[in-house]
């Protein structure tokens, strides 16, 4: 079990993490979903003990990491967002190094390295230097860093960033597998589909806060029946905004040059109203988005999660 209470971290003028709390049960996959700069890495860094929080606490099971900074480390696996591999060393040498840091040695280390290389499909390339590896291979090897000592809690920071669908699938399957065996998992991502498919519960994060939390079904229920209608074109945002305010049952979600996003309970009627009201403005396209995690994100943040 992992319990995070009211974590805070400020860097100069930026409140990177602003009172984050969540709890993850054993064997559960908890997703922190948020755009660039939301505070995901800062949160994980405080959970690993790498970064000192300004306020708040992190507990792994019964261990408070501030009170016992060594005790939890052997039980914790971390997969960092930045690839933490030595280019000149082979895959095996990299894992020997990291496994050694986790206290493994001798036959146990060799067995652990072989097992984890096999699992990520890199056994055949284990004697090659990492500099020969593709981006997806590096990501798979990077995942091994968090798995090698079979920890009881695993923190992954965007472990599939920028890789092909096949390598991504391998990583997602492994994460599911370790959770099924009882590992407690925290998984940060800015890919909606990953959070939807992989995570048992999701915390939607922006500007250092968790704005909403729950299972996918619970989060979808928060959107209600509301659909998001987007207007694209070279119209004047101010003019368009004034027109929208006169329409019944519609509220403005966001307005930026080239795009206006509205929330409505009746997208058919709203589209007709828009066509009538906006006929003299430069509207090029209208698109309708049904209730989804994406529309909840839009509703909460006024922005879309884009890759
Ligand atoms: N060491 C630091 N010094 C100053 N500002 C920092 C530092 N680390 C993070 N920040 C700032 O804190 C905010 C949160 O950053 P963080 O890296 O936690 O976001 P993130 O959600 O992981 O984003 P991404 O998806 O891009 O990885 C950002 O505004 C970032 O610029
Ligand atoms: Mg990050």
Description:
The chain has helices at residues 40-47, 91-101, 106-119, 135-147, 165-180, 192-198, 216-223, 237-245, 267-277, 293-301; strands at residues 2-11, 14-24, 29-33, 55-60, 63-64, 76-79, 153-157, 184-189, 201-206, 209-214, 227-233, 250-256, 259-264, 283-289. It is α/β, with parallel strands linked by helices and 307 residues long. The protein folds into two domains: 2-221, Rossmann fold; 225-290, Alpha-Beta Plaits (2-Layer Sandwich), CATH 3.30.70.920. It has a six-stranded mixed β-sheet with strand order 6-7-8-3-9-10, sandwiched between helices. A four-stranded antiparallel β-sheet has the order 2-1-4-5, with helices on one face. α7 crosses α10 (293-301). It is elongated. The chain starts with a strand and ends in a 6-residue tail after the last helix. The mean pLDDT is 92. The structure holds adenosine-5'-triphosphate (ATP) and magnesium ion. The site of magnesium ion (MG) has 4 residues, from α1.
């Amino acid at each position: 079990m992992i319990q995070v209470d009211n974590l805070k971290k400020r860097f100069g003028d930026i409140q990177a993490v602003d009172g984050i709390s969540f709890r993850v049960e054993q064997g559960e996959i908890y997703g922190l979903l948020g755009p660039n700069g939301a505070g995901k890495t800062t949160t994980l860094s405080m959970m690993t003990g790498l970064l000192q929080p300004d306020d708040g606490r992190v507990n792994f099971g019964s261990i408070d990491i501030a009170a016992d900074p060594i005790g939890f480390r052997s039980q914790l696996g971390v997969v960092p967002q930045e690839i933490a591999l030595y280019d000149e060393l082979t895959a095996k040498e990299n894992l020997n190094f990291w496994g050694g840091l986790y206290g493994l040695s001798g036959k146990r280390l060799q067995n652990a390295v072989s097992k984890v290389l096999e699992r990520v499909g890199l056994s055949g390339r284990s004697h090659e230097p990492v500099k020969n590896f593709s981006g997806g291979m590096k990501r798979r090897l990077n995942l091994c860093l968090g798995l090698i000592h079979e920890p009881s809690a695993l923190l992954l920071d965007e472990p599939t960033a920028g890789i092909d669908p096949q390598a991504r699938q391998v990583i997602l399957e492994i994460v599911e597998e370790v959770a099924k065996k009882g590992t407690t998992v925290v998984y940060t991502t800015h890919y909606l589909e990953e959070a939807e498919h992989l995570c048992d519960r999701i915390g939607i994060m922006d500007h250092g806060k968790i704005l909403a939390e729950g299972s996918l079904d619970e989060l979808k229920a928060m959107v209600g029946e509301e659909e998001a209608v987007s207007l694209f074109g070279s119209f004047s945002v101010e003019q368009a905004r004034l027109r929208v305010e006169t329409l019944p049952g519609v509220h403005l979600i966001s307005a930026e040059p080239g795009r206006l996003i509205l929330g409505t309970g009746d997208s058919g009627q709203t589209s007709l109203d828009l066509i009538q009201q906006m006929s003299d403005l430069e509207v090029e396209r209208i698109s309708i988005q049904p209730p989804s995690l994406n529309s909840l994100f839009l509703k909460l943040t006024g922005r879309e999660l884009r890759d």
